[in-house]
């Protein structure tokens, strides 16, 4: 029974069915935000939501039945359990009413169901140690630039660079490319050479530091793909070796049977 349940859970059609349920559930939760649709089809949307939740609970129960002690060792199983547990929490209670809006988190189950998305998340987690160094570098650049901007342009544009926290926020906005041209022109009305400061800052943050983030993530994804290829090659080599070992055992058994088999008796000639 356990093997049959495991085969059903691992079947491609069942995985596609779960993906379809997640997408339908996410669409239904999105339609609930439209007042006209919620008023007209509210009961149907609630039914779809409860049906999807029941399917998720049955799926998790089947996984627990199949994997038993191995179930909590898989981080993706823990992730799915937390998502479903949030949906099962009472949404009508006073302090837990916000949990009703958190039902949309069930759409994140696609991360654990779709293998390609799972690889991307694994690569991002693998890249976190490298990202920490880049975050420190970016923070240092922001801090140095904020101190310079506060001292140089604080009196010219006090709303933008009047204090260190304000300068940090303004430079973060500049780094993202949000309205940085107007910020620079406001300062350049008094300091015409301010374009040099903003140009160097944008080049350092946007075109150097932020690209380092992408480089670290791409490197982590390449390592993930290389490990997966090595694992597949190892499995293929192990399968080939197992087949060769089985053939060698069969040859030994055939040879042993030939040695123990009685010699054929000579046929008697019939007398004329």
Give the name of the CATH architecture of the largest domain: Orthogonal Bundle
Instruction: Profile the largest sheet.
Output: none
The helicity comes to over 70%
Residue runs with pLDDT of under 50 for 5 or more positions? none
What is the CATH domain class of the largest domain? Mainly Alpha
Taking the alpha carbons of the first and last residues, their distance comes to 70 Å
- Indicate the CATH topology of the largest domain: Helix Hairpins
Indicate the structural class.
mainly alpha
Q: How many helical elements? A: 10
Topology:
Layout: H1 2-10, H2 12-31, H3 35-67, H4 75-88, H5 110-113, H6 115-153, H7 158-161, H8 164-175, H9 180-188, H10 194-260
Helix pairs in contact: 1-3, 2-3, 3-4, 6-8, 6-10
Description:
- The chain is mainly alpha-helical and 272 residues long.
- The chain folds into two domains: 2-113, Voltage-gated potassium channels. Chain C (Four Helix Bundle (Hemerythrin (Met), subunit A)); 118-244, Helix Hairpins (Orthogonal Bundle), CATH 1.10.287.
- The chain is 78% helix and 0% strand.
- The longest helix is centred in the last third of the chain and has 67 residues, at 194-260.
- The model has no long low-confidence stretch (mean pLDDT 81).
